[in-house]
Design brief:
With 242 residues, the protein is of the alpha/beta class. It is built from seven helices and eleven strands.
Length: 242
């Protein structure tokens, strides 16, 4: 059975990539390509909505899809824990509906975040440095936030990481007690390093995106999983059973 996908943000870099993938797939088809000037009602009739917009637009897109009862894949950054909690309440009122929030579609990036969470139980000093292209409007990245949250969950019984002088702006923004430092500059697509410090040693877990083709497998997996999901699911790692 073919899955009809409404791509919101279809004119952007990721939107164009997703549209091409869908068109090349045997089991997916584009039901609507929605840009910033188009009505969100164009998603009516889709099996899945793929949100690849901007942080300031994403919630409106997702709320509209939820109201229509359409399974949704969110590939837009900026979904804080408070926004996700509010979304969970809205989705709970729609039995059988699923919303997947995917901070990063790269399998390698998701694995790196998972490895960092595993290592976090053995190190008390942990910081994240993430770099993205100059056009990325939000910081820290959704990937860095997700990584820090996973680290916090892994250290729930151990307490917060050691982050001295956290009151100084140059020390980064803390998420789940982990300082995150964001770079936005030319010559970079996406890169993240999780640096874990211990007695007499440093462990660095790094991932770098060299091409947007690294997102392809994750996009297809999320789209094919969305209709069977229930409630709000965060992270590609949940679909990979990590």
């Amino acid at each position: 059975m073919t899955i009809r996908v409404a791509v919101v943000g279809s004119s952007g870099r990721m939107g164009q990539l997703a549209t091409r993938l869908i068109e090349q797939s045997d089991d997916l088809e584009v039901s609507a390509a929605i840009g910033s000037r188009d009505s969100l009602d164009a998603m009516t009739g889709a099996d899945v909505v793929l949100d690849l917009t901007l942080p300031q637009s994403s919630q409106l897109v997702v709320d509209h899809a939820v109201q229509l009862g359409i399974a949704t894949v969110v590939g837009t950054s900026g979904w804080s824990s408070d926004r996700i909690a509010s979304l969970r309440r809205a989705v709970a009122a729609k039995p059988g509906l699923g919303v997947l929030i995917i901070p990063n579609f790269s399998v390698g990036s998701v694995l790196a975040s998972s490895f960092a969470a595993q290592a976090a139980r053995f190190f008390d000093s942990i910081e994240i440095v993430e770099a993205h292209h100059a056009a990325k409007v939000d910081s820290p990245s959704g990937t860095a936030v997700r990584t820090a949250e996973l680290i916090g969950e892994a250290r729930a019984a151990l307490g917060p990481v050691i982050a001295p002088h956290a009151d100084q702006r140059a020390r980064g923004q803390q998420v789940a007690s982990v300082p995150i430092h964001s770079l936005r500059m030319q010559g970079v697509l996406a890169k993240q390093e999780v640096i874990l410090g211990g007695t007499g040693e440093i462990l660095t877990i790094a991932h770098e995106t060299l091409s947007s083709s690294s997102y392809e497998a994750g996009i297809l997996l999320a789209l094919r999983s969305a209709r069977s999901a229930e409630g709000v699911v965060v992270g590609l790692d949940t679909l990979l059973s990590l």
